[in-house]
Amino acid sequence: MKPMQKIVVGITGASGSIYGLRLIEELLRARIQVSLLLSDAGRQVLGFETGLQLDDDPAVCETQLRGHFPAGKSLQVYGMSDFFAPIASGSSAPDAVVICPCSMGTLGRIAAGFSDNLLERVADVALKEGRKLLLVPRETPFNQIHLENMLRISRAGGQILPAMPGFYQQPESVEEMVDFVVGKVLDQLGVEHQLFKRWGG
C-alpha cells in the first residue's frame, strides 16, 4: 500500500467525536495532510462530549484546531457548502476519506448516492475514483435499513468499521479504548502506529 498523503476526515452528529479528534491527531503526527469537514450536528455533539467549542466559520475553526493539536498548514477546514474546495473534484481527490464518527443519516445518504453537502460529495468522489472510503458508525442497535445501507456501501467499495473496541489488550482507561478503534482505522489506511497491543504480541 502506497503511503497516504492527503486524507479527508469527516465528523458528523453521531456520538463518539473523540474518535475523530484522536484520529486527526495521529494523522497529523504521521505528517499527513488532513482536510476536516465538520457538520453542524457534529460540531454540537463534539462540544457537548469533549468541551471543545468550535466556531461555525471554517477559517476560525481552522485556527482553533491548529492551536489545539497543534498543527500548521497540514490541517485545513472546509465548510460543508464549499463545493469549490479542491477535494470536491475527482481531479483532486484525496487518498482516503474517513467519516469518524458517521451518523446513520450521513451513511444513508452516501449509500443512496445523494450528495447534498461537501462531505457527501467527497465520499461519492472516493467511491467513483476508487479511493478508500472508511465509515465509522457509532450506533446501536442497527435496524434493517442501517444494515442494508452499510451493505450497499460495502458492495460499492467502501469499508464499514464500527466503533467497537476490543478488550483482549485489557484496557485500563477510556483513552485506551478510543485508541483501539483509532488504531484499527489507521491500520486500514496503512498508517503505522503504536496505539494498541497486537494479539499475541
Automatic annotation (TrEMBL):
Keywords noted in UniProt: Flavoprotein, FMN, Prenyltransferase, Transferase
Binding site for dimethylallyl phosphate: Y168, K184
Database matches in SUPFAM superfamilies: Homo-oligomeric flavin-containing Cys decarboxylases, HFCD
Binding site for FMN: G13, A14, S15, S39, S103, M104, G105, T106, R138
Catalysed transformations (reactions): dimethylallyl phosphate + FMNH2 = prenylated FMNH2 + phosphate
Record-level Gene Ontology MF annotations: carboxy-lyase activity; flavin prenyltransferase activity
Domain of life: Bacteria
Documented EC number(s): 2.5.1.129
Task of the protein: Flavin prenyltransferase that catalyzes the synthesis of the prenylated FMN cofactor (prenyl-FMN) for 4-hydroxy-3-polyprenylbenzoic acid decarboxylase UbiD. The prenyltransferase is metal-independent and links a dimethylallyl moiety from dimethylallyl monophosphate (DMAP) to the flavin N5 and C6 atoms of FMN.
Name this protein carries in UniProt: Flavin prenyltransferase UbiX
Organism of provenance: Geothermobacter hydrogeniphilus
